[in-house]
Amino acid sequence: MYSSYIIIVPAIILSLYAQFKVQSTFNKYLKVPSVSGETGYSVARRLLDSNGLYTIPIEVSGGRLSDHYDPISRVVRLSEDVYYGNSLASISVAAHETGHAIQHATSYTPLMIRHRIFKVANIGSNLSWILVLAGIFFQASNLILLGIIFFTCAVAFQVITLPVEFNASSRALTMLEKNAILSREEVKGSKKVLDAAALTYVAAALVSVLELLRLILIFNRSND
């Protein structure tokens, strides 16, 4: 049993490092004002409009690093630091979330797949461990197997999230330089902010994959 827990230790360490990295990098570049002086809001509005997305609103979101694009309401939500800030961090995050809105508008395939499996993945994530624990308690390997199947949906969601996030960051960096919002030197700092954020998704995907492997080991032991 202990060996199954050891499997996920590297992923947990990576997750902790990723959280530290994104916080420290964001804080560092939050103190670096952009030469253009544009705020996260003005950059997001400018990029949305330049892509014909005039009707997508931009709202302030409560909390720190709570920035996201809501595909259901079709709204870009930015935290106060990003919405009002004119730092490299603020502009980078705003452009990244705009990238998600553009993905949605252009029906970017990985994003569309992620939307379609979201509900199943959410149910699978919550239900899988109940089934596994019930299977262990009742010594019913078929319940453990069913839990693994449900959890696989959650893993698929985490894995498909990677190209979605990487592509949004790539779009952001291209747009920031192409529209002369950031200089080439500033884009290097912007890339560091977005790379640090991307590491959190890599860590989450790795944790999910290793958790799935752990469940498979538990299932194999139940059949021994």
From TrEMBL:
Keyword field: Membrane, Transmembrane, Transmembrane helix
Q: Which residues cross the membrane?
A: 6-22, 120-138, 144-166, 198-219
Return the PANTHER family for the record.
Answer: MEMBRANE PROTEASE YUGP-RELATED
One matching Pfam family is Zn_peptidase_2
**Domain of life from the UniProt record:** Bacteria
Q: What is this protein called?
A: Putative neutral zinc metallopeptidase
